[in-house]
Design goal:
- The protein is mainly β and 275 residues long.
- It has one domain.
- It contains one helix and 27 strands.
- It has a 25-stranded parallel β-sheet that branches. A two-stranded antiparallel ribbon has the order 17-18.
- The radius of gyration is 19 Å and the shape is globular.
- This is DUF1565 domain-containing protein.
- InterPro entries: Pectin_lyase_fold/virulence.
- It comes from Acanthamoeba castellanii (strain ATCC 30010 / Neff).
Length: 275
C-alpha cells in the first residue's frame, strides 16, 4: 500500500513538500484546506499521485492547486468544494478516479486548463457551477482555453445554475457519456425583471468532438449549447435535448429562451431528439 509523503492535517501541505514520484495518500473524510488568506500551491515536481482512500471532501475558498509539471495523477473518490485546479501549459492531469467539483463563488472556475495543458478524464466527473439559490453568478465549472485539450473517456455529469457548466476555447474530445442539467431563473421574485442565464456548454472559438451519447436538460431561460462564430461541433453520437422554458415565469414565457444557440458549424450524422 502506498505510504503518505507527509503526515499533515491538510492535503495542500503534503503537496507543497512532495518530491518527484511521490504518492500522497489521503484517508477518507472532510478537510478544510485554506488558512485565513488562501493561496494556491503550485506543484512543479513531476509524477505526483494524489490517492484518496475512501471518499475525500476538500473544503476550499478559492484557487487551490496549480499543476505545473508534466504529469500529475488523481486516484480514488475526491470532491473539491468551493475552489479548483489549474492545469498549466505543458502539464497533463491524469484523472483515474471519481472527481466532483462545485463552484458557487462569484467569478470562480472549478477547473481551468490553460493553453498547452491537457486533462485526461478516465474516471467519472461531476461538475456543479452556480449558486443553488439562483443569485447572479459568473461561474465556470470547467474552462478549457485555446490550444488546451480535455479528453473525456469517463462519464461526465454537469449541473449549471445561472452559470456556464463547460466553457471551451480549445478542444473537448468526448468519448464517454455526458449528462447535463442547465437552469436559469427569472428574477421577478426579487422585484426585478431580469434573467439569470444558465448554459451547459459554450464553445468560444472551440471544438467539440462528440463520440459519446449526450443528454442535456435545459430549464427556465437557459441555453443547452452555445456555439460562437468560429466554433465547430462534430457530432458522431446521439444527442437528446429536453428544452423547457415554461415555468412559473409570466414575464418570460413568451421568450422561449431554452435553446440551442448556434453561430458555429455543426456536422451532424447522428440524430438529435428534442424533448
Amino acid at each position: 500500500m502506498p505510504r503518505p509523503v507527509c503526515p499533515y492535517p491538510r492535503v495542500i501541505d503534503a503537496l507543497r513538500e512532495a518530491t518527484d514520484g511521490a504518492v500522497i495518500v489521503v484517508k477518507g473524510g472532510r478537510y478544510a484546506e485554506h488558512p485565513q488568506f488562501p493561496q494556491e500551491v503550485r506543484v512543479t515536481t513531476n509524477n505526483i499521485t494524489l490517492q484518496a482512500l475512501g471518499a475525500v471532501l476538500l473544503e476550499l475558498s478559492g484557487p487551490w492547486l496549480a499543476i505545473d509539471a508534466p504529469h500529475f495523477t488523481i486516484k480514488g473518490a475526491l470532491e473539491l468544494r468551493g475552489g479548483g485546479v489549474l492545469i498549466c501549459e505543458g502539464a497533463t492531469l491524469h484523472q483515474n478516479g471519481d472527481l466532483s467539483i462545485s463552484t458557487t463563488e462569484f467569478l470562480a472556475t472549478g477547473v481551468k486548463v490553460a493553453a498547452g495543458g491537457t486533462w485526461l478524464q478516465l474516471g467519472r466527473t461531476t461538475i456543479s457551477a452556480g449558486a443553488a439559490d439562483g443569485d447572479f453568478s459568473l461561474t465556470n465549472g470547467v474552462h478549457v482555453e485555446a490550444n488546451a485539450i480535455w479528453q473525456q473517456l469517463g462519464e461526465l455529469s454537469v449541473y449549471s445554475h445561472g452559470a456556464i457548466g463547460v466553457l471551451v476555447s480549445g478542444t473537448w474530445d468526448q468519448l464517454g457519456e455526458a449528462k447535463m442539467i442547465v437552469q436559469g431563473e427569472g428574477d421577478a421574485k426579487r422585484g426585478n425583471y431580469g434573467l439569470v442565464f444558465g448554459e451547459g456548454v459554450r464553445l468560444a472559438h472551440g471544438a467539440w468532438s462528440q463520440k459519446g451519447a449526450l443528454h442535456i436538460n435545459a430549464i427556465d431561460a437557459s441555453n443547452a449549447i452555445h456555439l460562437s462564430a468560429g466554433s465547430v461541433w462534430l457530432q458522431d453520437a446521439n444527442v437528446v435535448l429536453d428544452l423547457d422554458s415554461v415555468q412559473e415565469r409570466r414575464h418570460y414565457d413568451q421568450l422561449g429562451l431554452s435553446s440551442l444557440f448556434l453561430l458555429g458549424l455543426i456536422r451532424q450524422p447522428a440524430p438529435v431528439v428534442h424533448g
